[in-house]
User: Fold Aldose 1-epimerase from Flavobacterium restrictum.
Amino acid sequence: MKNTPLVILLFLGLLLQTSCQKRQQNNIQTSSKTLTETKKMQSKVLDSSNFATEIGGKKVSLYWIKNENIQVAFTNYGGRLVSLLVRNKNNEFVDVVVGLGSIKDYQNSTEPYFGATIGRVGNRFAKGKFSLNGKQYSIPVNNGENALHGGTNGYQNVVWDAKKTNDQTLVFTYLSPDMEMGFPGNLNVKVTYSVMTDNEVRMEYEATTDKTTIVNLTNHAFFNLNGEGNGTILNHLAQFNAKEYTPVDKGLIPTGKIETVVGTPFDFTSPHTLGERINSKNIQLENGGGYDHNFVLSNTKVNGMIHVGSITGDLSGVVMNVYTQEPGFQFYSGNFMQGKNTFKSGAKDDYRTAFALETQHFPDAPNQANFPSIIVEPKAVYHTVSVYKFSK
Assistant:
């Protein structure tokens, strides 16, 4: 009986050791399962050999950055976001960014901006013209009589230099030469895409120039938070931190006015589905064929960033919160999608099956004195960060 406490202690120690070993084994199995699950998801929709080619003598590839709960694929052709896997309400991976399955598909697409890094100047400006220091510049028009997303050969067609610095970070760089697409100055551009531990995709844009120029960089990811190919986005629930917007003419050029959203279908200061008012009788919705407008952000900051708002997938439960250092964002409800392109999942890009939320300075800023300036001077550093955070 004297040895009973010792026997009990030895038994408890053995029990604890066995428990720890089982827990460690379970962790290894869970980690292995997650890795296997991820590889299956990646191979299911994307074949890296379809992205391995050369364009203009430069190597094109597919790149993945990832952690346990978020996996993102890019190609350096256009600095494009091709796939974005996050977990839904059932803890299953769902691809919330629509994209194409090969470089050839991107080159042949009737929609040139799927997932692309946009520049030198995102969005539209009137008649492709602007003035700097008393000199007028002209950009090739490619959207009716206006210039859109940098003109006829914007950054979506560039083969960027790519460097994967670790499993979570991919850096794209590009030297945009003086007078490319009519823009003055040699512009050194650096875009860093990162996945963060708290289910964030961080987009950091930097640029320097040797001449006074204009810059407005963004990313044109198209989202369906229910997953690529899972139908309409009109039942997604949205709330934006924007009390004002910039009305547009029939060419989608801002009139120069900044107007309140109160009493209009543009009021998302409280939650509404995207389709709730999209067919309302409203001249602005008629001009855009739906939502295709710049919203003016209210100055509510979280960790030094302005909170754009949130959108929730009605079927998946995926919530996307967006944060930025930009003064506005363009919300586009997929009005020009026509089912002419096939996504990597095999689904068509049907009408309003994806939306874009592009953080930005305002459209036509070079020609609107009351809009925040996009002029960048030599020796200055253009720098801005936007974050897309996912939860369920």
Notes: The chain has one domain: 48-391. The mean pLDDT is 91. The chain is about 15% helix and 35% strand.
